[in-house]
Amino acid sequence: MTEPTPKPSPPRLPKTAGPKRATTPKPRAKRKARRRPPNPALAWARRLARYRPRLLEDTLDRLGELYGRPVWERRLDPTSELVLTILTQNSADINAEKAFVALRAAYPSGLAPEHHRPGIGWGGEGLPAGAPPDWAAVEEAPLAELIDVIRPGGLGPQKAPRIQATLRKIREERGDHSLEFLGEMEPLAARDWLTSIPGIGKKTASVLLLFCFNQPLMPVDRHVERVAKRIGLLPAKAPPDLAHDQFIAMLAGTPDKTYETHVLLIHHGRVICQARSPKHDLCPIRDRCRFVDPKAP
After folding, report:
1. Distance between the two ends of the chain, CA-based, in angstroms?
2. What per-residue confidence (pLDDT) applies to 35?
3. Which CATH architecture has domain 40-71+218-288?
4. Which of 111, 120, 149, 208 is deepest in the core (most CB within 10 A)?
């Protein structure tokens, strides 16, 4: 038998394109809002309050019982305070005093005398009463002459051009050498204005604003940093620039205690909590100090 011949399949007709279906665009996935990085100063203050409650308050109470509670009092006009603070950079306070007295004598202004009552936080003897220097004369003085005048303070070749550049910047910005306007500014804005001057950091700016205007800005010098890190008020590896803002965050609820905090910590660092051979037996905060006991509460 022969197999039946298969029938040929009908030819396939080309498909005609029909009307395109409307496609609904897929909704784009919403981008997750980027979280702002945490503020390290606030984060530290919250952590300290949670894990070591009342550490700052206890420190101030006990140091206050030992040294007394310092009360803010303006000690110099702000331009004098700024120049004196520059003279103290990497120098002993008593040597900075000698350099400032020499400035007064070399460039007299004829203004009314100021009375320097620095209190226990100061490391020198205090300036004798005297008029502030003529800042225009200081700015325009031959550099070699100014270096020689401030030589008793140490590092004259570095500080003399810094002082003149600072005075020049103030005059160019403000028309004179007065810094009284800073007292009318918000504290951080005033600090930013000062730190825009080359060579003026947060510590120097905070000294001026705290001691001249009682603004709640905490100067962190080597004594304050050492004592605070030993107790645990600051992280052991906190960079100095951040430490200023960590103290602002810690004192946010009691900004009126900024002056007291600075003075008590710096004085404690000079008389008991020295860099070498701290006197633990005399320290009223030793039971909460992580330098004495790494597990202190």
Report:
1. 107
2. 73
3. Orthogonal Bundle (1.10)
4. 208
Q: Which tokens in the block code for residue 136?
A: 């225009």
Q: What is the pLDDT of residue 7?
A: 56
Question: What phi, psi does 139 have (nearest 5°)?
Answer: -65, -40
Which residues sit opposite 130 in a β-bridge?
A: 114
Domain with CATH 1.10.340.30 in the chain: 78-213
pTM score = 0.86
Percent of the chain with pLDDT over 70: 89
The conformational region for residue 237 under phi > 0 = left, psi -120 to 50 = alpha, else beta, is: alpha
pLDDT higher than 60, residue 167:
yes
CATH 1.10.1670.10 residue spans of the chain: 40-71+218-288
User: Cα dist. 10→4, 15, 160, 187 in Å?
Assistant: 18, 15, 105, 92
Q: How far apart are CA 108 and CA 102, in angstroms?
A: 10
CATH class of segment(s) 78-213: mainly alpha
- φ, ψ of residue 206 to 5 degrees: the values are -70, -35
Question: What is the signed CA dihedral for 102, 163, 120, 218, rounded to 10 degrees?
Answer: 170
For residue 160, give the amino acid letter.
A
Residues 121, 127, 128, 133, CA torsion sign: negative
Give CA–CA dist 98/117, Å, rounded.
Answer: 16
Instruction: Tell me the C-alpha to C-alpha distance, in Å, between residue 51 and each of 30, 152, 188.
Output: 38, 47, 28
